[in-house]
Amino acid sequence: MIPAGVAPKPAAVLVPLVLREAEVTVLLTQRPDHMSSHAGQVAFPGGRVDDTDLGVVDAALREAEEETGLHRSFVEPIGFLDKYITVTAYHVVPVVALVRPGFVISPQESEVSAVFEVPLSFLMSPENHEKHSREWQGKTRYYYAMPWQERYIWGATAGMIRNLYDRLYA
Asked: Quick one: pLDDT at residue 1?
């Protein structure tokens, strides 16, 4: 819940579905541990919508390229997931896109410590959608988590993945 009087900031993330020959994967990033906010968290590439962006799709493509080096010529946006409002006052539009293999990853080290792919089949298996809770600002908050190998996918990213699951399978 965004505090009263706080206007949510517009943001966009790319939900990149990589069309690997063996199976479709989802490209994710991990933020460096030294970040002032969301340190170490797994996230979709994305960020604030700038005044120079032509809209949320342009913002998601720009941010993905800046953070990971994924050039937009490999990306075909195909739709949107439900808007997601974060507890940090971002109004996020997830842009779903198909990504052709052959791209080169070049992470921006100040924002991204790792870029990795998770099989879509793992993320779309409801048995991998765990419900966790934490105390935050004096309240118990419940969220989805999808631990995968040494990564802990949770919070807004896991919520958006769950929304993708709901759209595809509900």
From this structure: 61
